[in-house]
Description:
Blueprint: H1 19-29, H2 37-44, H3 48-60, E1 64-66, E2 72-74, H4 79-101, H5 104-107, H6 114-123
Antiparallel strand pairs: 1-2
Helix pairs in contact: 1-3, 1-4, 1-6, 2-3, 4-6
Amino acid sequence: MPVSLDNHDPDIELTPGTTKSDVVAFLYQHDEYGYTPREVHEELDIPHNTAKVTLKRLYDNEFIEKTADGYYHARADRDDLYRYLGALKGLERTFAETTLRIHPNQRRRHRPTKQTSSLRRISRR
């Protein structure tokens, strides 16, 4: 699949619609807060153990930070991840506009893909 060279960052190994991407997007969208694994589990409706493992891996790979008392949060120095979040929001707007252009009778038959579903879930937060 071709990529736009204007915003392509080969160092970001995130795929929209994955748990890893959802957690990063959630933390960077709410960068003024820190979250425990339990809170991430509840906010994103993912298994608690999945939240714990994903947060630890993201922390180990320097995608996010962690306070001494266990709250995970966005890193202020990761402009690339803020751009990634902006790209996700752009995708969400694109899919929303596409859905609006579908004839009303066809809209009921539209089934969201996993990718668009997770983007909607993040944006509601």
